[in-house]
Amino acid sequence: MRPSQRLRAVRCETSSERRHEPARLTASKGDAVTEPSPFGLLLRSLRVGQNLTLESLSARSGVSVRTIGDLERGASTSPQRRTVDALADGLGLDVAAQHAFLRAARARVRTADPSEAPGAVPPHRVFDFSGRDREISEALDILEGELEPGQQRPALVISGAPGIGKTTGAVEILARGRSAERPTVFVGLDGFNASPLTPLQIMTAMLRQLPGTEQKPPADLGTAADQWRAAVEIAPVRVLLDNAANESQVRPILSICSGDVIVVTSRRSLAGLEGVRRLRLGPLQRDESIALLRRLIPQADADLDALDEVAGLCDDVPLALRVVGSRVASRPAWNVDDLLRRLRKTEDRLRVLVAGDLAVEAAISLSYEELDPRTAALFRWISLIGGKTFDAHLAAAAVRSTEHGEVEFRLDDLTDLGLLEARGGDRYRLHDLMRLFGGNKLRETVGPDELERRRAHIRSWLLGSLERAGAWYEPGRDAQSAGRAGRGFVSADAAALWIRAEAEHWWLAYAEAAGLGEDETVVDVADALHWYSDVWLSWGNWHRFFSLAVTAATNLGDPKMEATHLGYLAWAEIVETGDRERAVLTARAARDAARRADDPAQEGWANYYVGWACWLLSRVVEAAAAAADAIDAFSRAGETVGVENARLLSTMIRNTRGEHLAAIDQMEATLARVQGAPDADSFLNLITQYAAYLDLVDAYLAVGRNLDAIRAGAVGIRVARLLNDDMRVALMMRRHIRALIEAGDSEAAMVEVDEALRLLGPGSSEAFIFARFRAEIAEVRAGTRLRPNPDPRHAVGHSGSASPS
């Protein structure tokens, strides 16, 4: 019989053993009579089922004969965790059986007679309660708000993470309600005991708190329901059921108390309950946390920044805040700075968060020990994931699982227990205190070598996924099979969504790979992502990203690779940092490396970047010469895309020089060639078209062809929308609005200004430009505007893509 099967057979085996073991019910003279606990019965059943004597199990497990005997007789009912683990190993239990074995060890003996149901001492209302005004208002609206005719008042289920203040919050809600003069019936449901209260025990405990219910305790739930309804009809009460284990424990109670003011708290969401309203409590707002700390710490004369840091290190969790506040308050010689010195040590933080019988780690442990072994392992491994949020794919990578659906199911179970926070969609957040707890458990389970191997696996998976995502934007590359091992993507949009959502993870992994000297990985990933950098100009880290790639390429001693990544770096200096002088030097270094490699294509791109940077610096002679050199190098390499971009740069330079008619002819010719190409709708060609339309609008305006400028701007906006880049759309709108103003169509211009402001949002750095357009349009209408002198220059991308400078 397998160990898990033996567990299912316990009831049968133990009943037969009772006939042969009278000694375990009676102690020696002078000792108290003891009854075996559920764990003692289970332990004996498993031992006997394997034909093990006390001595042989002791030899297998390392647990003394006396300890095993005491546990089986019931003389000892609270074994330590290491004792339980050692016995499980000695018995050879599988992971499922070990979990059941541990739950039995944690169970407390309960009387079978419901008349002996526990009493209830309600928790007190804390004097220093802070915050939660929104949640309390929402809860009172549920419990005491107006009802529609025929509508029944729902029960309120309050759930949340360990230490989040569910019970305290429930007491505060009931204390602030209009019905506060009614007595509150309170029962602690012992939800985290392996044998929580039964519904009949709960009803018995509730009835014992009502006047006039001193009659014989109910024998069944039907009798309990009759007694309850008769009593509350005369004297209404409110009910608080604290720490529910599951739906089946409280569902009968909610039915019996239907219509009463009833609040249930649980770490689980109790999603299966019908006809209830739910309130999920999260961390406090930061100002609420600071207010609570000020109330708890009499000597809290520290500056706001110090209290803010304390609150952050406590994750804004009320229990953690109360613990640290109590620690400082109980030590007059301490101040907040003393506390901060201890809290900043990450490895010691959970040990610091203990004050008397309040302990954050103990609160989390109650939920953790409810987990089955595989879910517990998932919780431990995801503690290695940094960042604010992550998805199920990354969690699966952390446990090296290909069963994405199963991992998602287990993440939901962690969320339901409050160990994880669901952030919408496929995103989850592991709060810092939970991460510390999981990390501590992980280090207890595996050694440092395995930890490093798993970190390396997660890093490799992230960078492999990044390479595959970037490949969707690289012309001529098969994105489905590109790159190292990682997740795949069904479309370019899905790839782009992942790149942005997981940036905090892959950026850290990329930097770690660079620091560890994984140079080939770094250059491969940078090469795969450089086309996407044109799409996500607003990220803000491209200069650092390509700087690491340049270092890696130099370490590898490959001049072609060095030229390539120096070119990407020059692009970032032009577009992102705006250091055009530096960009000229970087691009010239790229040109030198390309010549060493005898690679005319990279030489062409290096000259292109030199010309582009010089043009933005108004060094048009150097810019024109570099553009001509780029055309020559691209032609030698047979690089048609490069030739078109270099010609477009040459045209922009001519436009800057005032040669507008010649520039118009060249840009129209470029657009005709690109739009007539078989891949006209490719990302690369759309980028080129966009850049051409930007400059074409300026050229048309310069020669007074306002209607042509309006037409070109409208087409340019459509192209920009195809690129899915709001900033590019806004930049093209700037040109189009200018054309509308020049043509005298102020009404259409104002409509487009409003559209641009909606697109950008109020916090955008570009919004002020469109606000200036409003004023200019007003001047046009009043006839007081002076003719503007627009600067046609703008930044372009890797392949001539126009971008905000």
From TrEMBL:
<feature type="region of interest" description="Disordered">
    <location>
        <begin position="1"/>
        <end position="34"/>
    </location>
</feature>
<dbReference type="InterPro" id="IPR001387">
    <property type="entry name" value="Cro/C1-type_HTH"/>
</dbReference>
<dbReference type="Pfam" id="PF13560">
    <property type="entry name" value="HTH_31"/>
</dbReference>
<feature type="compositionally biased region" description="Basic and acidic residues">
    <location>
        <begin position="10"/>
        <end position="23"/>
    </location>
</feature>
<dbReference type="InterPro" id="IPR011990">
    <property type="entry name" value="TPR-like_helical_dom_sf"/>
</dbReference>
<protein>
    <submittedName>
        <fullName>Helix-turn-helix domain-containing protein</fullName>
    </submittedName>
</protein>
<dbReference type="GO" id="GO:0003677">
    <property type="term" value="F:DNA binding"/>
</dbReference>
<dbReference type="InterPro" id="IPR027417">
    <property type="entry name" value="P-loop_NTPase"/>
</dbReference>
<feature type="region of interest" description="Disordered">
    <location>
        <begin position="784"/>
        <end position="805"/>
    </location>
</feature>
<dbReference type="InterPro" id="IPR010982">
    <property type="entry name" value="Lambda_DNA-bd_dom_sf"/>
</dbReference>
<feature type="domain" description="HTH cro/C1-type">
    <location>
        <begin position="43"/>
        <end position="98"/>
    </location>
</feature>
